[in-house]
Structure to design on (473 residues):
């Protein structure tokens, strides 16, 4: 079923178990497996994005071992992964072995999920000598409490750091969750020495390098992860991210497609990725087809749908359907009142219709919710598309107050005042630039921007900024 590297010790064991289980199912013969092995197999399937297979293992396992504690705990944990808290609590209540360490950890997890963290601490403290710190640490990692996880790992086992592989793996995960990437890299390298064909370890190393923005090292590590396990979907997803950073969207998409095939990413992600290209290329009709499905999908969260509605409205406005565009923006505001994108786009539509007062009112609402430089920049980008350099200059004057030392802002303000014919302010900001514009270059840029069409203006401006930014590298 898999092309996993046979030299990884753990992968070899779990692959053999999976093959035996699948063969037994296909043959239709009576099957029997150890309960602990089945729990491990269910967890492995779920971790590798095969939930149907995981539930099949649990169903068969509980038929073989009715009321088995290990399998019931695994089932409860998988239910929690699906946010089915009440069902998980019901299973927990049926388990009679109150002193089983996995049951104790499960019940502590349920307490934390139900916002009873102190009760969870008390339960774990009561059974401190009965539970494995590694299991408790992973429970705390799963509930987004990495400091608590690290605290448990420090309970008397630090001397085993170089000897206990499961302990080291948990420690590496904790350090990564705490953004202590250099320490995590040191631990993961020790793990790779112990099991050089573990895709999970290479992937962990790649993630650390990625977070440190050491993209070449991250790419090398993620390639090793894929060599170790050609069906490790998360590695393809990360490699897609890396290719995006390298500016190669074609190879990024190839890897994202593979990640979708392996269930590491959803089709939604690929749609969003494709959508970005379609909108950047002005292919509004094709983009609108994708977005029309997203805005009506009530399985999506309100925040997600609101964002899709804003993008849909933008496509519609570019296609000339202003009335429907504003309807969708109003729906977006109803779903997510604080989504500034809706107010910014509505402001642009008002502006295009000649209602500048209403446009400014909308932009004020956006700044009320997010009074940040990025909000001013988003408004400025719309002003640029409208060729309203006066409003764009106001936005960048505000950004200048937030980032007074940002030379890129000085360059933008110099160009804008050049276009507005304000020589005094042009010279003021031009002097502040790292590479002040010569008179010849200034006139060249002015001609390019004044002659650019509405569709070309944003790209022309971006290219000018890029040309001058490249000089500083």
């Amino acid at each position: 079923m898999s092309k996993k590297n046979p030299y990884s010790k753990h992968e070899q064991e779990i692959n053999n178990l999976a093959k035996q289980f699948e063969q037994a199912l296909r043959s239709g013969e009576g099957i029997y497996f150890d309960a602990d092995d089945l729990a491990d197999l269910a967890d492995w399937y779920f971790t590798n994005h095969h939930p149907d297979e995981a539930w099949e293992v649990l169903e068969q396992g509980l038929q073989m071992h009715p009321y088995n504690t290990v399998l019931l705990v695994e089932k409860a944990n998988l239910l929690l992964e699906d946010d089915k808290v009440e069902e998980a609590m019901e299973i927990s209540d049926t388990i009679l072995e109150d002193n089983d360490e996995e049951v104790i950890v499960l019940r502590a997890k349920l307490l934390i999920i139900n916002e009873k963290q102190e009760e969870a601490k008390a339960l774990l403290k009561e059974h401190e000598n009965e539970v494995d710190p590694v299991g408790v640490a992973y429970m705390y990692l799963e509930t987004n409490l990495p400091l608590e996880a690290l605290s448990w790992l420090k309970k008397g086992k630090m001397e085993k750091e170089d000897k206990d592989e499961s302990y080291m793996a948990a420690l590496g995960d904790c350090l990564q969750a705490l953004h202590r990437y250099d320490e995590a890299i040191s631990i993961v390298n020790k793990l790779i020495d112990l099991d050089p064909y573990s895709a999970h370890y290479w992937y962990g190393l790649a993630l650390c390098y990625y977070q440190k923005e050491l993209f070449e090292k991250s790419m090398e590590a993620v390639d090793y992860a894929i060599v170790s396990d050609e069906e490790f979907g998360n590695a393809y997803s990360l490699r897609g991210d890396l290719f995006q950073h390298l500016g190669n969207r074609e190879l990024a998409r190839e890897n994202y497609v593979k990640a979708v095939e392996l269930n590491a990413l959803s089709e939604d992600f690929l749609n969003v990725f494709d959508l970005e290209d379609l909108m950047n290329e002005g292919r509004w009709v094709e983009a609108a087809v994708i977005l029309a499905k997203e805005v009506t999908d009530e399985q999506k969260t309100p925040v997600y749908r609101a964002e899709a509605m804003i993008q849909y409205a933008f496509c519609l406005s570019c296609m000339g359907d202003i009335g429907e565009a504003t309807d969708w923006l109003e729906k977006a505001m109803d779903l997510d009142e604080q989504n500034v994108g809706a107010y910014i786009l509505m402001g642009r539509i008002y502006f295009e219709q000649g209602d500048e007062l209403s446009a400014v009112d909308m932009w004020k609402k956006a700044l009320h919710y997010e009074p940040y430089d990025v909000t001013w920049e988003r408004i400025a980008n719309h002003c640029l598309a409208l060729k309203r350099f006066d409003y764009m200059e106001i936005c960048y004057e505000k950004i200048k107050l937030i980032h007074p030392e940002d030379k890129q802002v000085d360059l933008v303000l110099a160009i804008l005042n050049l276009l507005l014919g304000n020589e005094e302010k042009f010279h003021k900001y031009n002097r502040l630039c790292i590479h002040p514009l010569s008179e010849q270059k200034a006139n060249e840029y002015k001609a390019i921007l004044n002659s650019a069409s509405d569709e070309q203006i944003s790209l022309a401006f971006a290219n000018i900024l890029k040309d001058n930014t490249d000089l500083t590298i």
Summary: Residues 9-27 form the longest helix (19 residues).
